[in-house]
Write a structure and sequence with these properties.
Strand content: 25-35%
Shape: elongated
Number of helices: 9
Structural class: mainly beta
Number of strands: 32
Radius of gyration: 29 Å
């Protein structure tokens, strides 16, 4: 069985480190410094990655087609012994770099090329932190949705414990009990999309590992979903390192091994599953660190633990000279420990949604080890990551207008992870800004500066916030108006006062922060309580609408009255008043409110 899963250290031509945020480079690697000499500001960004120059690939077996990412494809195609053709693993940017001299001057020489043929030069893509060798990644795209989990949040989810064999090829085997969250459940909590096919997990030492969501015929691709086969407990004194320290290879010292006999079935409640573990034998795992040999030591705070797909006994190390033992090394046995990534900080869910690209994950490296966090991004829901949601029903930003947002973290002890997402009226995500606000801290900024599409803003945070939003226009008819930041959605809202005549114009702006489309009814009620006009509007999923009162009242004039808004899904709404009486222009913004406000 060909070993394709591990990220080794013998690829002398590997162009860049295999994870975006790592300070680790492959032993003998020659090219990262050349790229960073030209683009030093790209150190630690997503371009500090082997995918800058390497591509993924596929291979076909009698069991079907298996697709691998750039790191694993390079190891599979080129091989640990370097017997393959490294050029076959390069994308067009990597080939252009090689053909132009494979040095810093080559990086500069190909800046003006469009290696991937997507309409942007290599230099433009690099400055935008986009892969110049991938036509599916260009500066027009926005960062993919993501969600950050703390260890405390994971512990609040339903837990799963399982006792299992961790079978290695070259280091010692061991039995242990791990506790954590089933990876399938975690991805569901993150809002995994129906289009998702697989995940790639990353650790900050350069390790990358791919897992299909569903069972794959390849015996070395460990799936996320479902349960794994029941296993048997195997014990032999010859294998026990405590009794045979010279030629033994399996550690049976875990407390969870006590009372078990060889041949016993291993029974785990709820079956065997791939889990994101944070405990081993009931204790938190030691956080991963890089030792003096530039190797990862430790396995925590999080480890991806897949059971064996084909249960087998623990076999002797492939490095051991003495193979005349009860279970000699067998290449075709299931060595699941090789797919059990340690100190995981990132889970990428593929494929990325259309129009999105990899997030800049520099902060999700060793910082996340220290902070006991993990980030999930890619083919997951674009909204609703944290526990606190806020809605700004109107957004505009163009050559003459802008929208500004000020946010204050109400937690006195915890920093707030905040995501500010802009949707256009059709429901497309057109901007995403992620920030951290210190405990009791505040931040203010322009949102989606330069975007030409109106829409609305969704703010999500893992701590409670208060906020204020302003929209402004420059030029001759300059103005500034405040936009309420709503903390709740409602199916019934009221605009207490509207006016529509030769002095006043009223515009009603409604956002639909829901996945299904929403039918909104606007009903004008005059000052005497008579329902005069009613009209339905359809707002697409995550979309918004701007509705002139003059259209609703069919050109009639009113100096008083109100509007009742009803919707099939919870919405937020805002009313913009303009006064042309002075010959200039002045605006005021008022929130639509529910009856209990």
């Amino acid at each position: 069985m060909k070993k394709i899963m591990a990220i080794g250290s013998v690829l002398l031509f590997t162009l860049l480190v295999c994870v975006a945020y790592s300070a680790y480079h492959h032993e003998g690697e020659q090219d990262a410094d050349k790229f960073l000499a030209v683009y030093p500001e790209m150190a630690g960004t997503k371009l500090d990655h082997c995918a800058l120059c390497h591509t993924g690939g596929q291979y076909e077996t009698s069991r079907g087609v298996t697709t691998l990412g750039s790191c694993q494809w390079c190891h599979y195609s080129y091989g640990y012994d370097g017997s393959g053709n490294i050029v076959d693993t390069l994308n067009q940017y990597g080939k252009d770099y090689l053909l132009n001299g494979r040095n810093a001057a080559a990086i500069q020489a190909i800046d003006s090329l469009d290696s991937d043929g997507d309409g942007y030069t290599n230099a433009q893509e690099i400055q935008a932190k986009r892969f110049p060798g991938s036509a599916t990644d260009d500066p027009s795209m926005v960062a993919a949705p993501y969600k950050v989990y703390t260890k405390a949040q994971l512990e609040a989810m339903a837990q799963h414990s399982q006792f299992l064999l961790m079978n290695t090829s070259r280091s010692g085997d061991f039995y242990a009990e791990y506790t954590g969250v089933p990876m399938e459940d975690l991805l569901q909590d993150a809002g995994i999309l129906e289009t998702a096919t697989d995940i790639t997990v990353y650790a900050p030492d350069g390790w990358a590992q791919n897992h299909p969501l569903d069972q794959d015929p390849d015996p070395e691709l460990y799936q996320v979903n479902g349960t794994y086969p029941q296993a048997t407990y195997y014990y032999d004194a010859e294998a026990d390192t405590a009794l045979n320290p010279v030629d033994g290879w399996c550690d049976y010292s875990a407390p969870s091994c006590q009372g078990r006999n060889s041949g016993d079935l291993i029974v785990n409640p709820n079956g065997n599953k791939m889990i994101l573990a944070f405990k081993r034998e009931g204790a938190y795992m030691d956080p991963g660190i890089i030792d003096q040999d530039n190797k990862l030591d430790g396995e925590g705070p999080f480890r991806v633990v897949p059971p064996q797909k084909t249960p087998s006994p623990p076999d002797q190390s492939s490095r051991a000279e003495n193979q005349n033992v009860v279970w000699p090394y067998d290449y075709d046995w299931d060595h699941n420990a090789g797919a059990s990534s340690r100190s995981v900080t990132i889970v990428k869910v593929s494929p990325l949604p259309p129009g999105t690209t990899d997030i800049d994950v520099y902060e999700a490296g060793w910082n996340y080890i220290d902070q006991e966090k993990i980030i999930i991004y890619g083919a997951i829901s674009s909204v609703g990551f944290g526990s606190y949601d806020y809605y700004v029903p109107y957004f505009v930003s163009d050559a003459n207008s802008c929208t500004g947002l000020g946010l204050r973290n109400c937690s006195g002890t915890e920093e707030a992870a905040v995501s500010v997402v802009v949707f256009n009226q059709a429901g497309d995500m057109i901007s995403k800004n992620d920030l951290t606000i210190p405990a009791n801290g505040q931040d203010s900024f322009l949102v989606g500066n330069g975007l030409s599409q109106p829409g609305w803003i969704k703010v999500n945070a893992d701590q409670p916030l208060v906020g204020v939003c302003f929209t402004a226009r420059g030029g001759a008819n300059s103005f500034i108006a405040d936009i309420p930041v709503a903390g709740e959605l409602s199916t019934t809202l009221y605009v207490p006062h509207v006016a529509q005549n030769n002095v006043w114009d009223t515009t009603i702006l409604v956002c639909n922060p829901n996945n299904p489309e929403t039918i909104v009814n606007l009903k004008f009620v005059d000052a005497d309580g008579n329902e005069r006009y009613s009209r339905n509007y359809t707002i697409p999923a995550n979309g918004s609408g701007a509705y002139d009162l003059s259209v609703l009242v069919q050109g009639a004039e009113y100096t008083q009255g109100s509007v009742k808004i009803t919707a099939t899904q919870g919405v937020a709404a805002f009313v913009l008043y303009s006064n042309l009486d002075s010959g200039g222009m002045s605006y005021a913004g008022v929130a639509a409110v529910s009856a209990n406000e």
